[in-house]
Amino acid sequence: MHAQKPMFQKIWKKKIAKSEGRLTDHELTYREIREGDQKRLVTIYDEFKHTFRFLKNYPRSVSFFGSARFPENHPCYEQARSLARRIVAETGYTIVTGGGPGIMEAANRGAYEAGGKSIGMNIILPHEQKMNEYLTAHIRFYYFFIRKVALSFSAEVYIFFPGGFGTLDEFFELVTLSQTRKIPRVPIICVGKNYWKHVDALANVLRDEYRTISPGDERLFHIVDDEEEVIRIIKSSPLRKE
Fold first, then answer.
1. Which pLDDT score is estimated for 24?
2. What is the CATH number of the domain that holds 133?
């Protein structure tokens, strides 16, 4: 332990890039690093506490995920908008998204048009992610991982539209949480067979060729095209007890 102490007391140099291309040296002592860690822990705790208080107001919800790049004339945008509208009208559930554009906007828009609760969970970024205009309430996050917890916390159903790396990251995390029983096995619905068939094929390869998942794990999610089937799955699903 005594041999490590001098190492931790070295001065750390952090170079901060400026817009005009110059670099400024900022020296951090071990004490400053420790104080910074403590402040981060307090921020994380406060953000979680605020998040769970916020979510208590919306006990029954459906979380939508998908690409932020789809414009309003894209078929996936139109389908997400229509589906969210029907979910609100026929179940009364709150619609929850990341609060941004694309599929998030489409789902919030459908919920808003149906007179339902339309929730956005926005992330604070250096180049601010713009919140869409169809929110009845929203919450903002500094940490991505807390936002991910909020989006996956206590929803009755998770609906995934086609998307990029972020959408797939959220999808595989939820499938893993369901696989390991960290969350109840509520429906994970993937809309768009032409997109999700590749994920289905991967799951079958993992099961049969590599044997890195168990038989049955490939059925942890539903792949559908028909809006009626999505509504049927939602209506036939029991309410979560937590």
1. 47
2. 3.40.50.450
